[in-house]
Amino acid sequence: MNRNDQQVQISSQQEEGNPNSFNFYTSNATTGTNKGIEFDSKVKLINGIILRSSCGLLKTHVDAYEFWTDDTTITILGNRDQAMAPLYNFSLGVTYSHSSGLYANVEFTGTFRPPINIAGLATYVRDFGHTPKIIDFEAIILKNSEIDPNKMANEIMESSPHVVGFSTITPRYPLIIQTARACKKLDPNVVIVLGGVHVTGEPKSVFHDSAIDYAIVGEGEEPLLDLLNALEAGQDVTAIPNLAYRESNGEVVVNPNRQFIKEVDSLPFPAWDLLPLEKYKDEVMFYKNYMGINTARGCAWDCNFCASNVVWKRRVRMRSAKNVVEEIRQLVENYNINEFFFYDDTYTTNNRRVFEICNLIKQKNLTIRYYVSIRADSLTTELAKAMKDSGCILALLGVESGDQAILDKTGKGESKEEIR
């Protein structure tokens, strides 16, 4: 079968008396034949891909999910006749362009965000004797036609790595799986490790594919180092906190998490030397290439539309103003970068620290331009002036709705009056 000339539609019908089991029926678009497929709330296999499903009552309707397999396109259709219709929400919840064979969710705007999370992991393990390499495909691949998992795998495996790690967000997950498979074809012994928000939110689901060996849940520095050290020494890895793995019988085990790193000032600055710094441009905001900076980890609020709490559990750990400004100074003096985007979920969580950062920037005579994300209820006239005087050119303000009832439902904890 060819994915371009055949589509299989799957509709669902809840099994009577069992809220966790659905019967899925496929309709062959070419022949019109029907075939029943039984699903439960765990795992089933379709055309070589295991889809892990989580059954629940969804408040919003979803028209369809589309998935690729190697041979056909599958469209998952939910029962949309009921206001609270039970739908299956598969972990591969992303749309592919099945007509062209390209990953339709990848957008090329000319603006690339530096992956300082990966660069931070790289410098951390490098300080303990490992030799990391970063390939930022988002900065390298400039158009849809260049997205090719096999070519990406060839570039990854060119240096014969022992371990390949991918940072995963949900829209990129299917592409990562394809690339991981291609890496395994080139070297079946290479170890594939996933991390990131998608893994932390659904750690067991990422093991649907045999190409995945391990997953790191939550904060990554310490568990990644422990895993690399154990693999290098040939030691058992199954007791490493924050690690998820597959046992020999196929069962997936997710180990308990360790405590968060308390002193974030103790973490080294990102490995900027491993990034293509000239690629990171935002021509709307900046004059030349820029760099991202995390001045804190986590967010104190609990907005129900945000994934921050999946990783950070509403814990905020702030770097000191001195540590933040030292990172800025090194980038200005060593890399000639003086434009920045502070990645913090809410930069103004602690306004006293923001004032300290602003004052230190001026004391160090650092001529920079930067922008941040803030909450309306944390901004004052004095703070706005201090930020402007230190080089802030923009503060992104989250205004999710002008309707107070909707704002209340988001869990944001702000009023229209505060936003005004």
For the sheet with most strands, the description reads: 5 strands, mixed
| Overall outline | globular
The span between the termini is: 57 Å
- Count every helix, treating DSSP H or I runs of 4 or more residues as helices: 12
Q: What percentage of the residues does DSSP assign to strands (E)?
A: 15-25%
Q: Structural class of the helices, strands and pairings?
A: alpha/beta
User: Which spans have pLDDT < 50 for at least 5 consecutive residues?
Assistant: 1-109
The largest beta-sheet arranges its strands as 3-2-1-7-6
Mind explaining what this structure looks like?
The protein is an alpha/beta fold and 420 residues long. 26% of the residues lie in helices and 22% in strands. The chain contains 12 helices and 19 strands. The chain has helices at 116-126, 137-140, 149-157, 173-186, 197-201, 221-233, 308-312, 321-335, 351-363, 381-389, 404-410, 416-419, and strands at 7-14, 22-28, 34-39, 43-46, 49-57, 65-68, 73-77, 86-90, 163-167, 191-195, 214-216, 243-246, 252-254, 291-293, 296-297, 317-318, 339-342, 369-374, 392-397. A 5-stranded mixed β-sheet has the order 3-2-1-7-6, with no helix packed on it. Strands 9-10-11-12-13 form a 5-stranded mixed β-sheet, with helices on both faces. It has a 4-stranded parallel β-sheet with strand order 14-17-18-19. Strand 4 and strand 5 (49-57) form a beta hairpin. The chain is globular and about 60 Å long. 30% of the residues are buried. Residues 1-109 have low confidence and may be disordered.
